[in-house]
Fold this protein.
Amino acid sequence: EFTKNVDNLMFCLSKGLCCPVGSLIVGDRMFVEKARKIRKLLGGQMRQAGIIAASGIIALEKMVDRLKVDHENAKILANKISKIHGIKIDLDRVQTNMVTFQLDDEIDGNDFLEKLKTRGVLALSMSKNKIRLVTH
């Protein structure tokens, strides 16, 4: 559904699919051949990559359903966060496993992150008061 209007696509297997490294590039033959040449020029070629390719196959065959669960968990998390005083979140923007929200100015972003960390929750500060959480 996300890609129905595109001709070419690069898809990262390590984002949410538990693959250690790797991406797929999809398009017509001419596009893929050009991408391979550019990749080689930039030093992106690997030899004996079979073991990595195997993890990519497992990611595509086994982990896609898991990603759906991660997306559902992100929506649950976002709904819970939206009820906390001092946090602003646009629930309509939560469509993947990433939840981004804004802290009110009176809440110190660094202090907030430290308190999350003491509870075993790692989060990313995208700006002074903008926080991102990822479910996986």
Notes: The chain has two domains: 9-62, 67-134. The domain at 67-134 is CATH 3.90.1150.10 (Aspartate Aminotransferase, domain 1). Residues 25 and 35 are 8 Å apart (CA to CA).
